[in-house]
C-alpha cells in the first residue's frame, strides 16, 4: 500500500503541474521549445523555493520529511484549491490522517428517521464509498432508483444509461462523482472494497478511466444541478451535502428548489406521483 500511495502522490503532483502553463504562473520560458504540456519539475521547484532534486524526490513519493512550509509552498506553486490541498496532505502524510474502519456501514435509526421525515426536499444518505444507504421517498424517485435498492452511486452514474438522460450535464456530474471518490481514497487507506470499486469502474467504463486518470479532487459540498426527469421534466435543484458529525464518512444530501419556482412545483408533482 505504501508503494501504491507513493505512486498516487507522484501521479497527483504531475497531473497538477501538467495543468499549469508558464504564462499562468509567470515562469519565464525565454522562447525555448517545450516538450511537456505544463510546468517542468524545475519550474515547480523554483516557484516553491526548493531544490530540483528535493522536489523530484517528493514526486517519487519520498515525502516523509516534508515540512509544513514545504507542503504549503508546493501547494501554492501548483495553485491547489482547498480540496486538493487536503488530498495532498493525505497522500504525503498518511500516518497523520485518521484511518476509517473499512467494514460494513451502518446508519443510525435516528438518521434514517430524520431523512425519511423530510417531505419538502429529496434526501439520500451516501456512504463513505458512495453507496446509497437510505433516503426518503422523493430522494429515490429523483434518481429513479427502487426504494429497496442500495446501489453504489458512482457505479450508477457511470454504468446506468438512464443517468445520461436524467442529467443534461452528465459529463460534469460524472466528474464530480469521480472527484469525490478520489477524496475517499485518501480517507479510506488500505480499503480493499474501495480498490475493487475503482478497479471495476476502470474496467467497465472508459469515461471513468479517462476522468480518473486526470486526478480530479473535490469535496462537492454544495451545487446547483439540472435534472430532466422522465416523469416531470426539467428541474433546477439546489444541493447541499452534510457530513455526519461523528465523522463516519457518511453524508446526507438534500436537493430542493427555490420556493414558488417551476422546479418546486415539479418536485411536488414527482412526490405525488410516487406516493
TrEMBL record:
<feature type="domain" description="HTH cro/C1-type">
    <location>
        <begin position="38"/>
        <end position="85"/>
    </location>
</feature>
<dbReference type="InterPro" id="IPR010982">
    <property type="entry name" value="Lambda_DNA-bd_dom_sf"/>
</dbReference>
<dbReference type="Pfam" id="PF13560">
    <property type="entry name" value="HTH_31"/>
</dbReference>
<protein>
    <submittedName>
        <fullName>Helix-turn-helix transcriptional regulator</fullName>
    </submittedName>
</protein>
<dbReference type="InterPro" id="IPR001387">
    <property type="entry name" value="Cro/C1-type_HTH"/>
</dbReference>
<dbReference type="Pfam" id="PF17765">
    <property type="entry name" value="MLTR_LBD"/>
</dbReference>
<dbReference type="InterPro" id="IPR041413">
    <property type="entry name" value="MLTR_LBD"/>
</dbReference>
Amino acid at each position: 500500500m505504501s508503494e501504491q500511495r507513493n505512486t498516487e502522490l507522484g501521479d497527483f503532483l504531475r497531473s497538477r503541474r501538467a495543468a499549469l502553463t508558464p504564462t499562468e504562473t509567470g515562469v519565464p520560458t525565454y522562447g525555448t521549445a517545450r516538450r511537456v504540456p505544463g510546468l517542468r519539475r524545475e519550474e515547480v521547484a523554483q516557484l516553491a523555493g526548493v531544490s530540483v532534486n528535493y522536489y523530484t524526490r517528493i514526486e517519487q513519493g519520498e515525502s516523509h520529511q516534508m515540512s509544513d512550509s514545504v507542503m504549503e509552498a508546493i501547494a501554492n506553486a501548483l495553485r491547489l484549491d482547498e480540496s486538493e490541498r487536503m488530498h495532498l496532505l493525505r497522500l504525503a502524510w498518511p500516518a497523520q490522517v485518521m484511518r476509517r474502519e473499512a467494514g460494513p456501514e451502518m446508519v443510525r435509526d435516528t438518521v434514517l428517521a430524520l431523512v425519511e421525515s423530510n417531505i419538502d426536499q429529496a434526501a439520500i444518505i451516501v456512504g463513505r464509498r458512495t453507496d446509497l444507504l437510505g433516503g426518503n421517498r422523493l430522494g429515490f424517485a429523483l434518481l429513479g432508483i427502487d426504494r429497496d435498492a442500495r446501489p453504489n452511486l458512482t457505479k450508477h452514474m457511470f454504468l446506468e444509461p438512464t443517468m445520461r438522460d436524467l442529467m443534461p450535464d452528465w459529463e460534469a456530474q460524472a466528474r464530480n462523482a469521480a472527484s469525490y471518490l478520489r477524496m475517499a481514497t485518501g480517507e479510506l487507506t488500505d480499503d480493499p472494497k474501495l480498490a475493487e470499486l475503482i478497479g471495476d469502474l476502470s474496467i467497465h467504463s472508459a469515461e471513468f478511466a479517462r476522468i480518473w486518470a486526470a486526478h480530479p479532487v473535490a469535496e462537492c459540498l454544495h451545487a446547483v444541478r439540472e435534472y430532466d426527469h422522465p416523469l416531470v421534466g426539467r428541474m433546477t435543484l439546489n444541493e447541499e451535502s452534510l457530513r455526519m458529525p461523528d465523522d463516519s464518512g457518511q453524508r446526507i444530501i438534500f436537493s430542493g428548489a427555490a420556493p414558488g419556482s417551476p422546479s418546486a412545483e415539479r418536485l411536488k408533482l414527482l412526490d405525488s406521483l410516487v406516493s
